[in-house]
Protein backbone atom coordinates (compact mmCIF):
# COMPACT_ATOMS: atom_id res chain seq x y z
CA UNK A 1 0.00 0.00 0.00
CA UNK A 2 1.09 3.55 -0.55
CA UNK A 3 1.96 5.38 2.62
CA UNK A 4 1.27 9.08 2.39
CA UNK A 5 3.06 10.89 5.14
CA UNK A 6 2.91 14.62 4.85
CA UNK A 7 5.17 15.25 7.84
CA UNK A 8 8.78 16.31 7.95
CA UNK A 9 9.77 12.98 9.42
CA UNK A 10 8.24 10.44 7.06
CA UNK A 11 7.79 6.90 8.27
CA UNK A 12 9.80 4.55 6.06
CA UNK A 13 7.59 2.43 3.87
CA UNK A 14 7.51 -1.21 4.83
CA UNK A 15 7.26 -4.40 2.84
CA UNK A 16 3.95 -4.32 1.02
CA UNK A 17 2.90 -7.82 2.02
CA UNK A 18 3.43 -7.27 5.72
CA UNK A 19 0.29 -7.55 7.89
CA UNK A 20 -1.04 -4.35 9.44
CA UNK A 21 -1.31 -5.87 12.91
CA UNK A 22 -0.10 -9.14 14.41
CA UNK A 23 -1.31 -10.09 17.89
CA UNK A 24 0.59 -13.02 19.42
CA UNK A 25 -0.61 -14.80 22.56
CA UNK A 26 -1.72 -11.57 24.20
CA UNK A 27 -3.05 -11.74 27.75
CA UNK A 28 -4.14 -8.89 29.98
CA UNK A 29 -4.89 -9.38 33.65
CA UNK A 30 -6.43 -6.62 35.76
CA UNK A 31 -5.99 -6.90 39.49
CA UNK A 32 -8.40 -4.69 41.38
CA UNK A 33 -7.50 -4.15 45.01
CA UNK A 34 -10.58 -3.77 47.18
CA UNK A 35 -9.15 -2.67 50.48
CA UNK A 36 -6.84 -4.22 53.06
CA UNK A 37 -9.18 -6.99 54.28
CA UNK A 38 -10.74 -8.14 51.06
CA UNK A 39 -9.07 -10.29 48.43
CA UNK A 40 -8.05 -8.54 45.23
CA UNK A 41 -10.36 -9.18 42.27
CA UNK A 42 -8.56 -10.64 39.29
CA UNK A 43 -9.99 -10.23 35.78
CA UNK A 44 -8.39 -11.95 32.83
CA UNK A 45 -9.68 -9.53 30.20
CA UNK A 46 -7.63 -11.25 27.48
CA UNK A 47 -6.22 -14.74 27.63
CA UNK A 48 -3.79 -15.87 24.93
CA UNK A 49 -5.35 -14.03 22.01
CA UNK A 50 -3.61 -14.34 18.63
CA UNK A 51 -4.79 -12.83 15.36
CA UNK A 52 -3.46 -11.26 12.19
CA UNK A 53 -5.00 -8.24 10.47
CA UNK A 54 -3.91 -8.12 6.81
CA UNK A 55 -3.09 -4.75 5.27
CA UNK A 56 -6.05 -3.03 3.73
CA UNK A 57 -8.51 -5.37 5.48
CA UNK A 58 -11.72 -4.32 7.08
CA UNK A 59 -11.33 -6.43 10.14
CA UNK A 60 -14.18 -6.87 12.59
CA UNK A 61 -13.89 -7.75 16.26
CA UNK A 62 -17.17 -8.92 17.76
CA UNK A 63 -18.15 -10.14 21.20
CA UNK A 64 -20.56 -9.46 24.02
CA UNK A 65 -19.98 -6.73 26.58
CA UNK A 66 -16.92 -7.46 28.73
CA UNK A 67 -15.42 -9.91 26.22
CA UNK A 68 -12.21 -7.86 25.99
CA UNK A 69 -12.67 -5.91 22.75
CA UNK A 70 -11.69 -2.49 24.06
CA UNK A 71 -8.82 -3.96 26.08
CA UNK A 72 -7.45 -5.53 22.90
CA UNK A 73 -7.86 -2.28 20.94
CA UNK A 74 -6.09 -0.29 23.65
CA UNK A 75 -3.17 -2.71 23.56
CA UNK A 76 -2.95 -2.54 19.76
CA UNK A 77 -3.07 1.29 19.95
CA UNK A 78 -0.32 1.38 22.58
CA UNK A 79 -2.71 2.85 25.18
CA UNK A 80 -2.29 -0.19 27.42
CA UNK A 81 0.33 -2.93 27.71
CA UNK A 82 -0.36 -6.67 27.77
CA UNK A 83 0.56 -8.74 30.81
CA UNK A 84 2.18 -11.13 28.34
CA UNK A 85 2.37 -11.59 24.59
CA UNK A 86 3.37 -9.36 21.71
CA UNK A 87 1.76 -6.92 19.30
CA UNK A 88 3.37 -5.88 16.03
CA UNK A 89 1.99 -2.92 14.08
CA UNK A 90 3.26 -2.61 10.51
CA UNK A 91 6.29 -4.70 11.36
CA UNK A 92 7.21 -2.84 14.56
CA UNK A 93 6.89 -4.46 17.97
CA UNK A 94 4.90 -1.97 20.02
CA UNK A 95 4.59 -3.91 23.25
CA UNK A 96 6.20 -2.29 26.21
CA UNK A 97 7.05 0.91 24.36
CA UNK A 98 6.47 4.34 25.73
CA UNK A 99 6.85 8.05 25.03
CA UNK A 100 8.74 8.87 21.86
CA UNK A 101 8.87 5.24 20.83
CA UNK A 102 5.10 5.39 20.44
CA UNK A 103 5.16 8.52 18.27
CA UNK A 104 5.74 6.35 15.22
CA UNK A 105 2.73 4.22 16.15
CA UNK A 106 0.55 7.32 16.61
CA UNK A 107 1.39 8.42 13.10
CA UNK A 108 0.33 5.06 11.72
CA UNK A 109 -2.74 4.35 13.81
CA UNK A 110 -5.71 6.36 15.06
CA UNK A 111 -8.77 5.42 17.11
CA UNK A 112 -12.41 6.55 17.02
CA UNK A 113 -14.28 5.74 20.23
CA UNK A 114 -17.94 5.16 20.95
CA UNK A 115 -18.78 8.34 22.76
CA UNK A 116 -18.00 11.41 20.67
CA UNK A 117 -18.95 13.74 23.53
CA UNK A 118 -16.51 12.04 25.87
CA UNK A 119 -13.67 12.11 23.37
CA UNK A 120 -14.15 15.70 22.16
CA UNK A 121 -12.97 18.40 24.57
CA UNK A 122 -16.04 20.65 25.04
CA UNK A 123 -13.85 23.74 25.54
CA UNK A 124 -12.04 23.36 22.24
CA UNK A 125 -13.23 24.60 18.89
CA UNK A 126 -13.73 22.00 16.14
CA UNK A 127 -10.76 23.32 14.18
CA UNK A 128 -8.48 22.91 17.20
CA UNK A 129 -9.85 19.43 17.94
CA UNK A 130 -9.10 18.19 14.44
CA UNK A 131 -5.75 20.00 14.29
CA UNK A 132 -4.44 18.74 17.63
CA UNK A 133 -2.94 15.39 16.54
CA UNK A 134 -1.38 17.07 13.48
CA UNK A 135 0.24 19.76 15.64
CA UNK A 136 1.44 17.14 18.13
CA UNK A 137 3.24 15.45 15.25
CA UNK A 138 4.71 18.73 13.98
CA UNK A 139 3.03 18.38 10.61
CA UNK A 140 3.14 21.26 8.16
CA UNK A 141 -0.01 22.39 6.32
CA UNK A 142 -2.27 21.83 9.33
CA UNK A 143 -5.01 24.17 8.11
CA UNK A 144 -5.27 22.45 4.72
CA UNK A 145 -5.29 18.99 6.31
CA UNK A 146 -8.06 20.04 8.72
CA UNK A 147 -10.17 21.45 5.88
CA UNK A 148 -9.65 18.32 3.82
CA UNK A 149 -10.56 16.02 6.71
CA UNK A 150 -13.73 18.00 7.52
CA UNK A 151 -14.77 17.94 3.88
CA UNK A 152 -14.08 14.24 3.66
CA UNK A 153 -16.48 13.53 6.52
CA UNK A 154 -19.08 15.72 4.85
CA UNK A 155 -18.72 18.82 7.04
CA UNK A 156 -18.18 22.38 5.92
CA UNK A 157 -14.72 23.61 7.02
CA UNK A 158 -16.51 26.81 8.08
CA UNK A 159 -17.63 24.97 11.25
CA UNK A 160 -14.04 25.03 12.53
CA UNK A 161 -14.87 27.96 14.84
CA UNK A 162 -17.75 26.19 16.59
CA UNK A 163 -17.84 23.98 19.69
CA UNK A 164 -18.83 20.28 20.05
CA UNK A 165 -22.08 20.99 21.93
CA UNK A 166 -23.40 22.79 18.86
CA UNK A 167 -23.59 19.50 16.96
CA UNK A 168 -25.75 16.36 16.99
CA UNK A 169 -24.38 12.95 17.98
CA UNK A 170 -23.85 11.92 14.37
CA UNK A 171 -22.11 15.18 13.50
CA UNK A 172 -19.86 14.83 16.53
CA UNK A 173 -18.93 11.36 15.38
CA UNK A 174 -18.07 12.85 11.97
CA UNK A 175 -15.80 15.31 13.78
CA UNK A 176 -14.13 12.43 15.68
CA UNK A 177 -13.57 10.65 12.39
CA UNK A 178 -12.12 13.83 10.83
CA UNK A 179 -9.71 14.14 13.76
CA UNK A 180 -8.66 10.51 13.35
CA UNK A 181 -8.09 10.60 9.59
CA UNK A 182 -6.49 14.07 9.36
CA UNK A 183 -2.99 12.72 10.20
CA UNK A 184 -3.37 10.20 7.35
CA UNK A 185 -3.04 7.03 9.43
CA UNK A 186 -2.55 3.63 7.82
CA UNK A 187 -4.77 1.95 10.39
CA UNK A 188 -8.05 3.22 11.79
CA UNK A 189 -9.61 1.54 14.82
CA UNK A 190 -13.31 2.23 15.35
CA UNK A 191 -14.39 0.95 18.78
CA UNK A 192 -18.20 0.79 18.89
CA UNK A 193 -18.06 3.98 16.86
CA UNK A 194 -21.71 3.82 15.84
CA UNK A 195 -23.28 2.04 18.81
CA UNK A 196 -24.53 5.21 20.51
CA UNK A 197 -26.16 6.54 17.35
CA UNK A 198 -29.72 6.35 16.13
CA UNK A 199 -30.10 3.56 13.58
CA UNK A 200 -30.48 5.73 10.47
CA UNK A 201 -27.56 7.96 11.51
CA UNK A 202 -25.59 4.78 12.23
CA UNK A 203 -26.06 3.70 8.63
CA UNK A 204 -24.68 6.96 7.22
CA UNK A 205 -21.67 6.88 9.56
CA UNK A 206 -20.97 3.26 8.59
CA UNK A 207 -21.11 4.27 4.95
CA UNK A 208 -18.77 7.16 5.67
CA UNK A 209 -16.26 4.87 7.39
CA UNK A 210 -16.38 2.45 4.46
CA UNK A 211 -15.87 5.28 1.97
CA UNK A 212 -12.95 6.78 3.89
CA UNK A 213 -11.30 3.39 4.36
CA UNK A 214 -11.48 2.82 0.60
CA UNK A 215 -10.35 6.32 -0.39
CA UNK A 216 -7.44 6.46 2.01
CA UNK A 217 -6.49 2.78 1.56
CA UNK A 218 -6.84 2.31 5.29
CA UNK A 219 -6.77 -0.86 7.28
CA UNK A 220 -9.98 -0.63 9.30
CA UNK A 221 -10.34 -2.48 12.59
CA UNK A 222 -13.98 -2.26 13.46
CA UNK A 223 -15.18 -3.25 16.91
CA UNK A 224 -18.82 -3.98 17.61
CA UNK A 225 -21.03 -6.20 19.73
CA UNK A 226 -23.39 -6.41 16.73
CA UNK A 227 -22.45 -9.01 14.15
CA UNK A 228 -24.86 -7.52 11.59
CA UNK A 229 -22.93 -4.22 11.66
CA UNK A 230 -19.67 -6.13 11.29
CA UNK A 231 -21.12 -8.05 8.35
CA UNK A 232 -21.94 -4.82 6.59
CA UNK A 233 -18.53 -3.30 6.97
CA UNK A 234 -15.95 -6.07 7.38
CA UNK A 235 -14.44 -8.71 5.14
CA UNK A 236 -12.97 -10.63 8.07
CA UNK A 237 -14.12 -11.09 11.63
CA UNK A 238 -12.72 -12.40 14.91
CA UNK A 239 -15.08 -13.43 17.69
CA UNK A 240 -14.09 -12.78 21.31
CA UNK A 241 -15.65 -14.42 24.32
CA UNK A 242 -14.53 -13.73 27.88
CA UNK A 243 -11.03 -12.84 26.72
CA UNK A 244 -10.64 -15.80 24.37
CA UNK A 245 -10.73 -15.85 20.60
CA UNK A 246 -13.42 -18.40 19.73
CA UNK A 247 -13.26 -18.19 15.95
CA UNK A 248 -12.01 -16.03 13.10
CA UNK A 249 -12.35 -15.98 9.33
CA UNK A 250 -14.01 -14.34 6.34
CA UNK A 251 -17.17 -12.60 7.57
CA UNK A 252 -19.53 -14.38 5.20
CA UNK A 253 -18.15 -17.75 6.27
CA UNK A 254 -18.52 -16.99 9.97
CA UNK A 255 -21.97 -15.50 9.32
CA UNK A 256 -23.33 -18.44 7.33
CA UNK A 257 -21.45 -21.28 9.06
CA UNK A 258 -20.58 -20.22 12.60
CA UNK A 259 -18.33 -22.86 14.13
CA UNK A 260 -18.90 -21.96 17.73
CA UNK A 261 -22.12 -22.04 19.75
CA UNK A 262 -21.25 -18.61 21.17
CA UNK A 263 -21.09 -17.11 17.67
CA UNK A 264 -24.42 -18.73 16.85
CA UNK A 265 -25.79 -17.13 20.00
CA UNK A 266 -24.49 -13.71 18.94
CA UNK A 267 -26.14 -14.16 15.56
CA UNK A 268 -29.44 -15.11 17.11
CA UNK A 269 -29.46 -12.47 19.83
CA UNK A 270 -28.39 -9.24 18.19
CA UNK A 271 -30.87 -6.89 16.62
CA UNK A 272 -29.75 -6.75 13.03
CA UNK A 273 -29.03 -3.46 11.35
CA UNK A 274 -31.12 -4.48 8.36
CA UNK A 275 -34.12 -5.21 10.54
CA UNK A 276 -33.73 -1.97 12.49
CA UNK A 277 -33.42 0.02 9.27
CA UNK A 278 -36.53 -1.61 7.86
CA UNK A 279 -38.42 -0.69 11.04
CA UNK A 280 -37.13 2.89 10.85
CA UNK A 281 -38.29 3.11 7.25
CA UNK A 282 -41.69 1.85 8.25
CA UNK A 283 -41.93 4.43 11.03
CA UNK A 284 -41.03 7.10 8.49
CA UNK A 285 -44.12 6.08 6.52
CA UNK A 286 -42.47 3.77 4.02
CA UNK A 287 -40.42 6.61 2.58
CA UNK A 288 -36.83 6.15 1.55
CA UNK A 289 -35.37 3.90 -1.08
CA UNK A 290 -33.60 0.65 -0.67
CA UNK A 291 -30.25 2.27 -0.07
CA UNK A 292 -28.96 3.57 3.19
CA UNK A 293 -28.62 7.06 1.74
CA UNK A 294 -32.31 7.10 0.99
CA UNK A 295 -33.17 6.29 4.57
CA UNK A 296 -30.86 8.91 5.96
CA UNK A 297 -32.10 11.47 3.52
CA UNK A 298 -35.65 10.94 4.56
CA UNK A 299 -35.05 11.38 8.24
CA UNK A 300 -31.95 13.49 8.82
CA UNK A 301 -32.85 16.11 11.41
CA UNK A 302 -31.41 19.51 12.18
CA UNK A 303 -29.53 20.05 8.97
CA UNK A 304 -29.57 23.81 8.84
CA UNK A 305 -26.32 25.64 9.18
CA UNK A 306 -23.92 22.76 8.74
CA UNK A 307 -24.38 22.01 5.08
CA UNK A 308 -21.39 20.35 3.58
CA UNK A 309 -20.56 23.01 1.05
CA UNK A 310 -17.74 20.93 -0.35
CA UNK A 311 -16.91 21.37 -4.01
CA UNK A 312 -18.66 19.16 -6.52
CA UNK A 313 -16.79 15.91 -6.96
CA UNK A 314 -15.30 15.83 -3.46
CA UNK A 315 -14.50 12.15 -2.94
CA UNK A 316 -16.68 11.41 0.10
CA UNK A 317 -19.80 12.57 -1.68
CA UNK A 318 -19.05 10.68 -4.85
CA UNK A 319 -19.57 7.33 -3.24
CA UNK A 320 -22.13 8.54 -0.74
CA UNK A 321 -24.10 9.74 -3.75
CA UNK A 322 -26.90 12.04 -2.74
CA UNK A 323 -26.44 11.26 0.95
CA UNK A 324 -27.77 14.41 2.48
CA UNK A 325 -26.67 13.02 5.84
CA UNK A 326 -23.16 13.85 4.79
CA UNK A 327 -22.56 17.29 6.12
CA UNK A 328 -25.88 17.54 7.76
CA UNK A 329 -28.01 16.32 10.53
CA UNK A 330 -26.64 12.85 11.07
N1 LIG B 1 -8.88 -0.72 33.81
C1 LIG B 1 -9.52 -1.84 34.17
N2 LIG B 1 -9.45 -2.29 35.44
C2 LIG B 1 -10.08 -3.42 35.82
N3 LIG B 1 -10.81 -4.18 34.98
C3 LIG B 1 -10.92 -3.79 33.70
C4 LIG B 1 -10.29 -2.60 33.23
N4 LIG B 1 -10.58 -2.45 31.92
C5 LIG B 1 -11.35 -3.50 31.57
N5 LIG B 1 -11.55 -4.30 32.65
C6 LIG B 1 -12.35 -5.54 32.66
O1 LIG B 1 -11.92 -6.36 31.59
C7 LIG B 1 -13.01 -7.03 30.97
C8 LIG B 1 -13.04 -6.66 29.49
O2 LIG B 1 -13.41 -5.29 29.36
P1 LIG B 1 -13.48 -4.55 27.94
O3 LIG B 1 -13.79 -3.15 28.22
O4 LIG B 1 -12.26 -4.86 27.18
O5 LIG B 1 -14.72 -5.30 27.28
P2 LIG B 1 -15.52 -4.92 25.94
O6 LIG B 1 -15.62 -6.18 25.15
O7 LIG B 1 -14.90 -3.75 25.30
O8 LIG B 1 -16.95 -4.58 26.53
P3 LIG B 1 -18.04 -3.50 25.98
O9 LIG B 1 -18.73 -4.17 24.82
O10 LIG B 1 -18.96 -3.34 27.14
O11 LIG B 1 -17.33 -2.25 25.60
C9 LIG B 1 -14.24 -6.60 31.75
O12 LIG B 1 -14.52 -7.58 32.71
C10 LIG B 1 -13.83 -5.31 32.40
O13 LIG B 1 -14.53 -5.10 33.60
MG1 LIG C 1 -15.59 -1.82 24.79
Automatic annotation (TrEMBL):
Record-linked CDD domains: ABC_NikE_OppD_transporters
Q: Which domain of life is it from?
A: Bacteria
List the GO biological process terms: transmembrane transport
Matching entries from SMART domains are given as:
AAA
**Ranges of biased composition (kind: Low complexity):** 301-321
A Pfam family assignment: ABC_tran
All copies of the ABC transporter domain together span: 21-267
Point to the regions of Gly residues compositional bias: 285-300
| PROSITE patterns found in the cross-reference section | ABC_TRANSPORTER_1 (PS00211), ABC_TRANSPORTER_2 (PS50893)
A Gene Ontology MF term for this entry?
ATP binding
Disordered as annotated region, ranges:
285-330
**Which keywords, in A-to-Z order, does the entry hold?**
ATP-binding, Nucleotide-binding, Transport
What protein name is recorded for this chain? ABC transporter domain-containing protein
